[in-house]
Structures are given as C-alpha cells and as structure tokens.
Design brief:
Layout: E1 18-19, E2 32-37, E3 52-61, E4 65-70, E5 83-88, E6 91-101, E7 109-113, H1 114-128, E8 151-153, E9 161-163
Amino acid sequence: NDLGLVTLRQAVTTTPLALDARTLDASLVGTSFEVVGFGITAPEATDAVARRTGSAQVAALGDVEFTSAPGSAQACTFDSGGPALFMVGGQTVVTGVATHGDAACADHTAYARVDVAMASFITPYLTSTAAGSATLGQRCFHDEQCSGGPCLVAVDEPRLSFCGKPCTGARD
C-alpha cells in the first residue's frame, strides 16, 4: 500500500475533504475526476510549487490502485500524494492518492485506492490518534489526543512526544 498519513500537531483552519466510503468496482472505469498537485508540468520543467488542478479519467481498476489516462491534466514529479477527487452524492471526496506514473508525465498515473486502505490502515490510525485516545505516558501527536494533560516533546528525542500530566503546582 502506498498511502501515508500525516498527523499535524495543531488544528488547521480548513475543513478536510471526506474520504470515499464506497467500495470501488469496474463501473469506475471511464469516470472523470479532478486531480490536484504541486508538481512540475513536464519532466525537465522547474515550475513546481504552484497548485494546479485538472481532470483525468479512470483507465483501469486494480486490486490496490486505479490508473488514469490524462484529460486536461497529468500528474508529474512532485505530485505524489495529491488527491484524486470524485463527486459522490453531490460531495467531493478523496478516492485515491497519486503514487507514481510514467517518466514522461504523459501517459498515465497510478492512484492508491482509499477504499482498500480504510479498514486495515486509515480507520485504525485515525482512531488511535483521535482526541482523548492516549493517556499519561503514551505516545501522542497533539494535545487533544491526551485525555488528561498536554502532549509533551521528549527532551532527549524531539521527534517523539508523550502524554504528560497537567501542572498543579510550581514544581510541576
């Protein structure tokens, strides 16, 4: 599975897009969708960092990914991790995540399927990092995750944080 999740230490001001709850099947082939990325526009280009959107069409559906044929857009270098956005019931949802494509950025892009990763990876991860899911001494990623105190960065390893207890006096 090529999906990865990012946990932020602070809340963001934007509302995250919903994940696609459907189980994908062959009827997806031929469907158009929106692609979003910050990659370059051609293999030798140096124009990364600009947000771009366009459309693509599902060309094939595999067990863990689907492949797109370019429409008005084609993923290229630095677009990995960008969403494949579909309209489902009038709502924009993330159905896949760009993982790789052809070297010329002209023929296809592969997208990891969200539906395949939901039960085994995404839902357990979101549950384990949800507000109130960690107690004193357990690893944490943000203050809201700790049920009884702050999420404190370890002094000897700044990449790790653990739930602490609230301060109750000057010695704390």
